[in-house]
Amino acid sequence: MVDHALDTFPRLLLHHAKVRGDKPAIREKDLGIWQTWSWSQVADEVRAFACGLAELGFKRGDNLAIIGDNRPRLYWAMTAAQCLGGVPVPLYQDAVAQEMAFVLENAEIRFAIVEDQEQVDKLLEIKGRCPQLQHILYDDPRGLRHYIQTEIQSLDEVMEMGRIHDRNHPDFLDGEIAEGRPEDVSVMLYTSGTTGQPKGVCQTHGAFITAAKTGCEFDRLGPDDEILSYLPMAWVGDHLFSYAQAIYAGFTINCPESGDTVMTDLREIGPTYYFAPPRVFENLLTQVMIRMEDAGAIKRWMFRYFTDVAKRCGAEILDRSPGVTAADRLLYALGNLFVYGPLRNVLGMSRIRVAYTAGAAIGPDLFRFYRSIAVNLKQLYGSTETCAAVCLQPDGQIKFDTVGPPAPGVEVRIADNGEVLVRGQVMLKEYYKRPDATAESIDDQGYFHTGDAGFFDPEGHLKIIDRAKDVGKLANGAMFAPNYIENKLKFFSYIREAVAFGHARDTVCAFVNIDMGAVGDWAERRNIAYSGYTDLAQKTEVYNLVLECVERCNAELALDPVLSHSQVRRFLILHKELDPDDDELTRTRKVRRGFIAQKYGVLIEALYSSKPSQFIETQVKFEDGRTGMISADLRIMDVKVFDAAAGKRAA
Amino acid sequence: MSGRNIGEPILVVEDISLSFGGVRALQNVSFDVREHEIRAIIGPNGAGKSSMLNVVNGVYHPQVGTVTFKGETRHHVDPHHAASQGVARTFQNIALFRGMTVLDNIMTGRNLKMRTNFLQQALWVGAAKREEMAHRRKVEEVIDFLEIQHIRKTPVGRLPYGLQKRVELGRALAAEPELFLLDEPMAGMNTEEKQDMCRFILDVNDQFGTTIVLIEHDMGVVMDLSDRVVVLDYGRKIADGKPDEVRSDQAVIDAYLGVAH
Fold first, then answer.
1. Which residue of B1, B149, B154, B194 to mutate against A (max A Cβ within 10 Å)?
2. Strand ranges, E, within A261-352
3. Coil, strand or helix: which one is A138?
4. Which range of residues forms the domain containing residue A344?
5. CB distance A143–B3 less than 8 Å?
6. Is pLDDT above 90 for A399?
7. Given its phi and psi angles, is residue A546 left (phi above 0), alpha (psi -120 to 50 degrees) or beta?
8. Residue A175 contacts B, CB cutoff 8 Å
9. What CATH architecture applies to the domain B94-176?
10. Which of A31, A146, A624 faces B140 most closely, judged by CB atoms?
11. A563 assigned to some structural domain
12. Contact at CB, A145 and B141, closer than 8 angstroms
């Protein structure tokens, strides 16, 4: 049970200010130097912030939009709103103005706290659609000096107002904090909306504190841990790790200097606790591999030799499983000295005790690689609606294709149609102003329908295969799980995105996006000249490279009795990268299948015909909102398929 | 843009004529630049734009004419003197130290402001250390301003062109100039890089009140950025005024469309 006195985030903050007031709570790198705020300083700042908001008329029940990169003041804004019984609503900072308009309207935002001029401009652009927006408070004044709009105000000013307010009414804020209850909504996170409009997920203090407590106890996180906060604040993972858990356990969060310096900042901070989506782990490894190819012969040999040793026994040593020979242990110790240790250091992972990945499937080779060099990388499963805390992999019981057993206090059941159902304290209170959606996703017995399809393996670990609604059937009745196939394709470093089609069709076909970094480097090493993505994607050599990957994917699929019919028969490489700005991906980079199928209908028809190529012209949106056209003649390639029996023999 | 107070002329060039042997690069060119304004110099290739900038900061010495900067009239300006008076510039072809990091390159922009001597700096004692810390802070502000934190420690030679241009801007900014001469800051850039550069130029002008003279070919950029435009053609001034006026000027249209001379 949650301690009664510490059942809301503002109370937890005050608690830490009292018991570890001078310990670092948050750091930010500014002008090249890490600046630190202690817990008591943070409590003071939040106090000024909250009083300033109250002075401006922010009331209990109001929603506060927060838009920007991970900045200390934006995190404080969350607590400040919560102090007053309001609800912070973090938005994705890279969303274009029009996408923000929906949330601002839906959540009836009167107050918004934004990072800089860029965000102020966006809000002013949509001000017409959102007349209720009265206050835009900004953190960084650069470029905003001459804005004359009355609704714009700097945070410094507001905090100064707050300090005066606090001096005149010293009991005001404590009274407001005392009124907070654990069943109050603590945050509203909008789901990325793979389908339809985004929905505001209302989570309570109780739910997030339970989720934080579960995670902290599970991995023994304490006040001495450090985390780098670099993922979007609007994403449930960041809210759990950098906000809920940090305030629950009292550990330090570190805000990077800018989005581009994350790697350097990671190395400087050396966090003990780390979270990244699989994509980040993959990019890191790709960079290492590229740099290794440029290294001297001796280093290359050492790297290859010792990564082979690690592959053989590294993960087992990390899991403390028996059966590793003394010779292997000795070699591994040597490897640790010469290769793994320095490599972890370069990656900024020297001090990591626990690292998590989630949000998408992680490639088995990738996952094993990190574990084999003694980075305790684990997977978890959860969603915005469940505080990202449904399943966690316990130390020593790690499997690459499952997400672990249900977390303590969470009930998980598989419905008859294969959908994963969840019940527990970490569940959402409701979808904001959407009783219909709430009723649809929470059944009479109180189970939340996750929309994911999965099953438990014999040891009770949950295995997720796809979105339940995406799982379809081929014309011959065989199961078709597009995500599963796409993930298999994306595990190849040359393939960045893939979209598989096959529901109600005879065969499976796919679109592929090459990975510009990996394929570009590959091409340069072979002296293949190219001008840009569109050009590179259509090179014969690149097509052959991708063909090889797809064939290997088919060979693996052939081994699976359920999915052997899902082998990819034909594919093409798209002429542009799928992009959230063009609505093809969600902000969390999940493919929007329906939209893509509609937009590229001609290409799909061409895939299912016998045409060798297809011409297409596509509109693209640039970052500043202007549009342009890209056209190309796309080649389509046939792929060898393996029969299921052959696959079995090969196994 | 409304908040800037454009002041009195800070730079006046009068009746400048410059020739190299028989080539007359500039003929009787006069114009002024007011404090805090953004002044563009445009014109076809070989019109004498870069030569004009070189005259202002003393690289070329005109045969006739004077340059008045902050009330001080000179016939012969010398580059070192110009720099110490607060004139900084960037070049059409990037002129950075390719083997040095971004940080070190920008630090060289502080060179004229360093007061400690070689020996003190070599020994890294007292005053030299304090001075370097103060300069480093200023340089970090420039890095923050130009959003190049991620390449702070990267050797300039490894950077793409657009970023090198930005570093060059940074080095000039580190000198805290009053007059900023930009020679084709957006040449060879893609649309996005151009937009970034435009924003930085406007921000420099707005935040530090720096007076800016820039040479640019992209007419869209010139029209958006500048307060007033000088147009040169074959070394002569053919127009001078607000962007709209200049755009509709017949002589300018002829020069750009290439009417027979």
1. B149
2. 273-275
3. strand
4. 278-404+450-467
5. no
6. no
7. alpha
8. no
9. 3-Layer(aba) Sandwich (3.40)
10. A31
11. yes
12. no
Q: What is the DSSP string of B60-120?
A: S--SEEEEEETTEEESS--HHHHHHTTEEEE-SS----TTSBHHHHHHHTTGGG--S-HHH
Rounded Cα gap, residues A460 and A475, in angstroms:
33
Q: Is A35 on the interface with B (CB under 8 A)?
A: no
Residue of B nearest to A141 (CA): B207
Q: Render pLDDT for B4-13 as a digit per residue (tens, 0 to 9).
A: 678 889 999 9
* Residue whose token pair is 């190395």: A267
CATH number at residue A524: 3.30.300.30
Of B137, B150, B195, the CB nearest to A31: B137
Which H or E element spans position B145?
A: helix B126-145
Tokens of B98: 């390719």
Pairwise CA distance, residues A581 & A592, whole Å: 12
How many angstroms separate the CA of residue B4 from the nearest CA in chain A?
Answer: 9
Q: What is the pLDDT of residues B84-112, one digit of tens each?
A: 888 998 887 788 999 999 999 999 999 88
Within A505-539, where are the H helices?
516-525, 533-537
Q: Which residues pair with B179 in a beta bridge?
A: B87, B211
Say whether B141 and A31 touch across the interface (CB within 8 A).
Answer: yes
In chain B, residues with a C-beta closer than 8 Å to the C-beta of A255 are none
How many domains in chain A? Answer: 3
Residues of chain A with C-beta less than 8 angstroms from the C-beta of B197? none
pTM for the structure as a whole: 0.81
Dihedral angle of Cα A523, A525, A528, A529, to the nearest 10 degrees: 90
For residue A624, the chain B residues in CB contact (below 8 A) are 192, 195
pLDDT digits (tens, 9 = 90+) for B142-186: 999 999 999 999 999 999 888 999 999 999 999 999 999 999 888
Instruction: Give whole-number Cα distances, A159 to A112, A154, A339, A498, B51, in Å.
Output: 15, 9, 50, 48, 52
Give the distance from residue B203's alpha carbon to the nearest chain A alpha carbon, in angstroms: 6
pLDDT at A127 over 80: yes
| C-alpha A232, offset from chain centre | 8
**CATH tag for B1-86+177-190+212-261 (out of 3.40.50.300, 3.30.470.20, 1.50.10.150, 3.40.50.970):** 3.40.50.300
Q: How confident is the model at residue A517 (pLDDT cuts 50, 70, 90)?
A: confident
Q: At A629, list the tokens.
A: 């056209």
Helices vs. strands in chain A: H and E counts, helices first: 24, 27
Q: Do B150 and A258 touch (CB under 8 A)?
A: yes
Q: Where in chain B do CATH 3.40.50.300 domains reside?
A: 1-86+177-190+212-261, 94-176
Handedness of CA A463, A465, A470, A474 (dihedral sign): negative
Coil, strand or helix at A350: coil
Provide the b/e sequence for B224-260 (b: ≥16 CB within 10 Å): ebbbbbbbbbbbbbbbbeebeebbebeebeebeeeee
Q: Is this complex's ipTM strictly greater than 0.90? A: no
Min distance B136 CA to chain A CA atoms (Å):
9
